[in-house]
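debug: dumping io for the single-chain case to check the tokenizer round-trip. Nothing else runs in this session.
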Amino acid sequence: MNAVRALRGATTVENDTADEIHERVAELLIALLDANGLEPANVISALFSATPDIRSAYPAPAARAVGWSDVAMVCFQEMAVEGSLPRCIRVILHFAAPDDRALKHVYLRGARGLRPDWQEK
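debug: decoded output
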């Protein structure tokens, strides 16, 4: 039986530019789908957050550029916590999949250190 499931992922950008934000977000979303055998049609919604030092572009247009035209998305600013990882974009994806499917969360670039316990060995 299918259920609504959730995946987490994150990446970082070196520079706060629209081009780099779009490239990194597209890379992250493709990696999440590939790692979990999903298609954009499986995705129900995406919640994107970005640290306050990212101001050049929203993540959602990058998702639409890779075919996510029917996915509900929202972008918001991450809390400004002292010592947190800079220039970081996070996502939570809600999707339909079997209850027993193993999930593979994806953390790329500088965000790998956020969840080293989830990195592939």
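debug: round-trip ok. Residues 7 and 55 are 25 Å apart (CA to CA).
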